[in-house]
Amino acid sequence: MTKRMVSLFVIPGLVAFIGCGKAPDPGAPLPKAPAAVGEANAKPYPLKTCVVSGEELGKMGEPLRFIFKGQEIKLCCKGCDKDFQKDPDRYLQKIASATGK
Prior knowledge:
Blueprint: H1 2-18, E1 64-68, E2 71-75, H2 78-86, H3 88-99
Antiparallel strand pairs: 1-2
């Protein structure tokens, strides 16, 4: 009798706890990630080349993209990110002079 009562209450409880709903569709597109803080107000990157190396963006894969002091930055690779972080104001000045500001 107790085994029957356990199976009457435990099994449905487990199914309800674990869930029996429809699994997500693996082919469905993922929701777009929210924009980074300050990204909407950032000045767009004006160059077609990496501000550090001068390489054409996209030649070495997807450019590294981030916002720094309200300016969108695009670099060709992680190696350039290391150089950028050593003296970011120098590269911000290069971008500013490229836009004439």
